[in-house]
Amino acid sequence: MEKLVQRFDQEINWGWLSAAAQMALDKAIAIQQIPAPTFAEGERAAYIAAQFHALGLLDIQTDALHNVWGRILGKQSAVPGILISAHTDTVFDAGTDLTVHRDQNLIYGPGLGDNSMGVAGMLTLAAVLKQQNLMPECDLWLLANSREEGLGDLGGMKAAFAALKNRVALVINLEGMAFGHVYRAGIAVRRLHITATADGGHSWLHFGRPSAIHGVIQLGARITTLTPPGTPRTTYNIGMIDGGQTINAIATRASLWLDLRSEAPDALETLENEVRHFVHELNTADLRFQVDVVGDRPAGAIPGDHPLLLGALAALGQVGVNGTLETGSTDANVPLAAGVPAVTIGITRGGNAHRLDEFIETEPTAAGLRQFALLTLAAAAYQAGLRA
Q1: How far is CA 139 from CA 136, 142, 171, 242, 334, in A?
Q2: Is residue 388 part of a domain?
Q3: Could you tell me which of 328, 365, 332, 323 has the C-alpha nearest to residue 112?
Q4: Cis preceding linkage at 232, omega within 30
Q5: Which has the closest alpha carbon to 257: 327, 172, 189, 210?
Q6: Whether residue 167 is found in the same domain as residue 247
Q7: Number of neighbouring beta carbons within 10 Å of residue 10
Q8: Domain boundaries, position 287
């Protein structure tokens, strides 16, 4: 695929690139201004569906989870196409102040890079292909999917991929601030909500009775003694603790939320079993624990010599960037786990993701769009049977 990337780079007149970069930045801000907490992406989905209609996409559909997809017709529609995806949800609640401000080469705004810029890059590519009469060799399926963040558990991609998997053979997933990186492996993620319950009572009169909060603290303390392997990289994090009624009551209920991750499913299973052993040891008739799985992200990887991966690195090379290979948890986990080759790439750079002072850099956007267009067109040509 590297030769296809180079061929398209030579054949395309890139005079439109600067205007396209500005279009992507404008679209990113427009998308970012629409609140889209995980599980509440409906308004943003409606905006994107309208954009798809304006761009003339075919087979546009919005499902019950607020996924939106549509098709760009390719020269060879009989072959399976390319799926291009970008998630629409954010970690910020509906009441978050979404005001943006600029500081030279930076634009600040919650959710602007993660992932309004990814969605904007997808919309911009569709607009450019139409304006420049650049018809891909096979169909492109554009997917703006929901439920990527937090407890969304990749639910949007899981549902959309199930609907589209027979129509696509390769996946290009977009994360707005990942420019310069190519994610080639999806790590396994398991998320547990562990709840303790007890009979409770008054802090003075019933001192000595089991407390749900004390139980959760004891469990958390044991979890922090775990030493997961460095290879394969395996991690844990207690992200939230809640419970109790008041300061002078023995808590009847408390819980913690635990995030477990690993590059290897076996190592993740071992870590989870250790946690469940701690729970079993602490569980008594008077202090009862329940473990609920609230997240289960599958793992997978694209082979190091796969043409899609090599094409992604070649596309970065054409814009003067030495791409770095990464592993992580993205929507690409879903197709990778199903054996469908997928990579995650970016449109620009930025920082402070998941913080109110999140920002993107404007300067790399043109190069980011160029590498995205090169990879998409080369992947479509490769999928249609062209090799040079």
Answers
A1: 7, 10, 12, 48, 21
A2: no
A3: 365
A4: yes
A5: 189
A6: no
A7: 8
A8: 188-297
The whole-angstrom separation of Cα 12 and Cα 21 is: 16
**62, part of any domain:** yes
How do strand 359-361 and strand 168-175 relate by DSSP bridges? unpaired
Q: What is the pLDDT of residues 319-363, one digit of tens each?
A: 999 999 999 999 999 999 999 999 999 999 999 999 999 999 999
For the record, the structure tokens of 363 come out as 């300067």
Which CATH number covers residue 257?
3.30.70.360
Q: Residue 287 carries which side chain, given as an amino acid letter?
A: L
| 294 to 35, 79, 167, 297, 385: CA distances (angstroms) | 24, 37, 30, 10, 42
Question: Which of 297, 313, 331 is the last residue before a domain boundary?
Answer: 297
Those residues with Cβ within 8 angstroms of residue 232's Cβ, 6 or more apart along the chain or in another chain: 262, 263, 264, 267
Q: In this predicted model, what pLDDT tens digit does every residue of 367-382 receive, in sequence order?
A: 999 999 999 999 999 9
Task: Report helix, strand or coil for 367.
Answer: helix
